[in-house]
Amino acid sequence: MTHIFPPSQGFGRSMDGQNSTEEVYFILLGLSQHSRAQIAFFCLLLMSYVVTLLGNSLILLLIYHDPQLHIPMYFFLSNLSLDMCYTTSGVPQILINCLVTTPVISLGQCMAQMATGLYLDVVEHLLLAAMAYDRCVAIGDPLCYSMHMGPLLCGLLTGTSWTAAFLLTVVPVLTMPLEFCGHHVIKHFSCEFLALFRLACSDLQFYESLMLGTSALTLLAPFAFIVASYGKILVAVLRMRSTEGQGKVFSTCGSHLVVVALFYGTAISMYMMPQDKTTHDSDKIISMLYRILTPMTNPLIYSCGTRT
Hints:
Layout: E1 25-28, H1 35-65, H2 72-80, H3 84-88, H4 91-97, E2 104-106, H5 107-140, H6 145-148, H7 151-174, E3 185-186, H8 193-197, H9 205-238, H10 243-271, H11 281-303
Parallel strand pairs: 1-3
Antiparallel strand pairs: 1-2
Helix pairs in contact: 1-11, 2-5, 5-7, 5-9, 5-10, 9-10, 10-11
């Protein structure tokens, strides 16, 4: 095991408002106080990460090489498969941290990791809403589906998702005036936004309100849209006379709903519930489910769905 100790001072702004000359370093606790659990966690995390990379890469290759899959549903899915980048933004660092006694990370690395994670996270929220709209049009108005969901609209929906996510996450994070008062211990596996936010001693009331507004816009609004879309889908399914057709639709939409429930359930519990100044073990577990489980299971869940 390697011992790494951070400097005692940090770069940025201290309590007296003066700039120090050294860079801020944070200690990431994670499971460092439980060596046996940390070894088991490392093995499980490594296996999950490899499965995530292989599964999502396979989905992308299949979609690229099979012309029959060049339809809007799989176009959105190919974008969604890029959430393996979301896992990659934090998991390699967590794996390395499991191999050292005192894992540390600089403020610059921490901010980059946090901004990247938030960005890709919000992209997935918006893409899931776009996929729900695609399914709603395909099932509710199948005769006009190809006319409504053309390449232009699909490109517009995905382009808007990636651009809006950048403006709502990366820009606010990089402009946030963070000040730290000597509390440089992050009780988490990685630089999660809320874990770092709790360490700041600067006045972040505006950014707290901004975070709530952004969470409502990127979590509750897409989730409400998805629920409404699947409500229309349910009405259309109940009007079908063919039992086989109903089963096919339920198979396809059921896979989407599993991902939505898993992803939005953990996200809302993390960002929309009342927060305190303490990072609990449950926060760490939810974060890992959010970062690891959903990207890992997406290829399996969606591959079980049937095209309509």
